[in-house]
Amino acid sequence: MHRHLKYISQSALQLVYPASCCICENDLMLHENHICSKCAYDLPYITTNEQDVTKLSKLFWGRVEIHAIHSYLNYQKGNSVQAILHKIKYQSRPKIATHFGRLLAKSIPKDHSFNCIVPVPLHPKKLLKRGFNQSTAIAEGLSEILEIPINEKCIRRNAYNESQTKFSKYDRFENVRSIFTVIKPEQIKGRHILLVDDVLTTGATIEACAAEFLYVEDCKVSIATLAARV
Q1: How far is residue 3's CA from residue 64's CA, in Å, rounded to a whole number?
Q2: Which side of the chain, N or C, has fewer Cβ within a 10 Å radius?
Q3: Which CATH number fits domain 44-228: 3.90.550.10, 3.40.50.300, 3.40.50.2020, 3.10.129.10?
Q4: What pLDDT was estimated at residue 124?
């Protein structure tokens, strides 16, 4: 009975305020969440086959020791994934990020050993300006499915650095040098952290964050991103 009433209320709400696909902006069917079935089918997914796994792992070879990398979508300039990320960050749509965080979680092998989920932090000024941290929104979806707690108190962002989008690859690394500080190392000593960000391109920001955690005794870092350029 309760499920039937919920279905009726959702149907009525959809008629009055039809939700739209985050890519094509067509109205969604009742069973669809944030993205229509057609656009979902056409998304460039990153698979768990050996080729995609190797491409992801190569992003950090010789740079920082990452236990594993999990990413859901292949980001390329101008593709549908860029449209999703733009809508999340610049049109204030954290629920889309959380939805895709759940999907990302379902793609992660069940034999993982994560102890906590840590979103890459924003500087307080940027957080105030944007109103939310997109990495936290993704982490909420991951936490819901993986049933692992989120820890946002163990690391902080020291500098309000500029957006990375207009920097060259070299300048991106300079832009994020020494911008993170672990503030509660006792919370992550001997732990396996799942470090979360929205997109992995050069990897400069997430490398800088992971490197700080790896100074902590017996700390191990894996990475999860909604998208990566592979």
Answers
A1: 49
A2: N
A3: 3.40.50.2020
A4: 92
d(CA 227, CA 104): 9
Cα(27)–Cα(4) distance, rounded to whole angstroms?
Answer: 23
CB 197 within 8 A of CB 225: yes
Residues of the chain with CATH 3.40.50.2020: 44-228
With beta carbons less than 8 A apart as the criterion, state whether 91 and 132 touch: no
At residue 59, the 3 state secondary structure works out as: coil
pLDDT single digits (tens) 115-145: 999 999 999 999 999 999 999 999 999 999 9
Alpha-carbon distances of 24 from 14, 37, 38, 78, rounded to whole Å: 17, 11, 9, 14
Residue given tokens 């929104």 in the structure block: 137
